[in-house]
Design goal:
Layout lengths: L1 H13 L6 H10 L3 H11 L2 H7 L3 H9 L1 H14 L8
Helix pairs in contact: 1-3, 2-3, 2-5, 5-6
Length: 88
Amino acid sequence: MQTLRRACEERLSQQLDVVNVGTTLALAEQHNLTRLKSDCLYYLSFSEVFFSALGTEGFAHLAKACPDILKEISNMHDRKKPKPLLKE
């Protein structure tokens, strides 16, 4: 059963796109598919992907099904922001 589970995770990871990443991430979160979740979060770490995915039905589904994951995504993007230079 684990082999089938891993094969499904891999297949879903290979099929990630802007339209399905939200739904796929919700699926990964709900079924504790850590590798698939990691792949989705990596895909969403690219700002252009993230902002394109925001307006999709899949992302709306993610927000309803797994609202806590949105905090994780937000924190991930906050960490990537450049820190302002301090004036002396």
